[in-house]
Amino acid sequence: MKKILTTVLFLATIGLLSSCQQSARGPEKTEDEGGGAGATAATKNPEKNPSLGPQTSPGSSEPAVVTAPELSAECQGVHDQFQKLRESIPYVFSDLKRKPDEIDADLQRSIQLGEKFLADCGENAYSPGVKILLARHLSSRYKRQEALYKTSLTKQTGLKKLNRTQRAQIAAEVKALMTSYLDRIEELGQAGLAASKPGTRAHCEGLSVLADLSFNYLRDNKSHRTLAGQYIAAGCEDVLKGNQDYYYNICMSYLRDSQFEEARQYILKVLKDRSDRPQYAIYNICLFEALYALGEMEQLEELMVHIQKEYVERLKDSTLPKSIWAQYSQWSMISDFWVGFATYALGDLDSARAGFQGYIDKADQLEQQLGQAGKELPSVVRIYRDFRARDYSKYIQDFHGKLPAVEFDAGVEWLTGRPVSFAKTREEGKVLAIIFRQAKNLRALPFLKLLDSLQKQNPDKFVAATLSFMPRGLTAEARQQRLDNLRQELQDNELKLSSGFDVSDKHQVFRGLHATVGSASFLIFDSEGKAAWYHVDPTARDLNTLQRVADRLLQ
Q1: 448 and 376, same structural domain?
Q2: Range of the domain at 335
Q3: Using one digit for the tens of pLDDT, what is the confidence trace for 187-232?
Q4: CA distance 419 to 421
Q5: CA 229 – CA 87 distance, rounded (Å)
Q6: Which among 534, 484, 498 is positioned nearest to 513, based on CA atoms?
Q7: Which of the four pLDDT bands, split at 50, 70 and 90, describes residue 48?
Q8: Does one domain contain both 89 and 138?
Q9: What kind and span of H or E run contains 170?
Q10: Domain shared by 207 and 123, yes or no
């Protein structure tokens, strides 16, 4: 697929369906790109249509008026229907009190009308606006269209159940079809943008559509940052009132490129300049992600304490859009958990206990209130309570600061490296880190690499190991496959840390150390052999936090 950045710079928007990244209103009603009683005049003289503006050719920076014939009655009717639908399909769906299928029906109808207009009515003063809006609506249907392609191709096989090869083939075909789909969005957006006048609604919508493509589907982060600046500089935020906020995406693009410090510095300036905006909550989300990735646990704690105080007042604002209000509400509650997480990483057990328990109490109280109203606790709140806060609380209560209750001798089959022993590392005064994971768990692989690096850098002070588990009842072939997968993964990534499998009955090693079987778990023991830190589902964003914990224990 060709790059989005061509002769015209454009800005990325936030994904249309992501409530935490968007303003909560659709675009305010403004003058259409032609149509209605003034259609004939606007078509004959595009310069008199302020929302459209004069057309330009793709290779020209100067507007060039297109002489276009008056629309036929049929084309005018198609265009009127097309424009009428735009108000029922806003930028942001989350606050719309309509069923998704109803919105999708309007999207499909709009796409049909737009394609018909472009096919039957030739190039005219309305064409740029139609192309841009059509591109936007195609983008809105991306996920549904992808699912339709998959369903259709699966049905064509005539098979009730597909094997791995067949599923992979269909996935490849779907990817190819979606590439063409994205090409169509880009084609329409570029053509519409090139023919619209800078500063007009059509031009700003063109920037928005193409940038959405760049940010959400092509993931061209560097271009996105350039384009975002162009959008902001052009004043498009005021032109498209109620459109998505663009500052959050710029910050996220830095995070995607692992430019964590750049993300922090950028969003701190945004917070300073735009603290009165409803989007203040999502700016703080990006700051949170930057601080987390940097391992700045002190500042993360400060941010969460600030949120606890600030958001209570902001939640009193009845004018907040629904989606933004939801972010204030969610983070006001979950901030307790992150206070616990940050302070635990810093070794402050009292604050960690208070944070985790504070979150549990809030979630329990909310569950009771919702239950009285016949409602259930939101899944994200429940998951953080049941599988995070309670998990950490239990670990601190039952395991932290204590010697492990199990040993590896009888329950672990070592595959590579030297066998690891709690007793031996304790005797040698070494810090011991263990990651429990299955081979090919790519989320945890960066974490594994850092452990290997820490061991190489501190051979006399640090020992690292990775353990997987063997399910009961495996065939000899399946068992060998697991062994081969782990051995190959370590070899491919040039990892030298000890690795093995928990072969004990009922995974007693896993369970005795409070590790989960279903996802990755990380444990680290200090030089005295006592449990010092615990983390569920370690990923790349945890690397700096691990480094800080290890540095503290290695001192």
Answers
A1: no
A2: 295-398
A3: 999 999 999 988 888 888 888 888 889 898 999 998 888 878 888 8
A4: 7
A5: 28
A6: 534
A7: very low
A8: yes
A9: helix 164-194
A10: yes
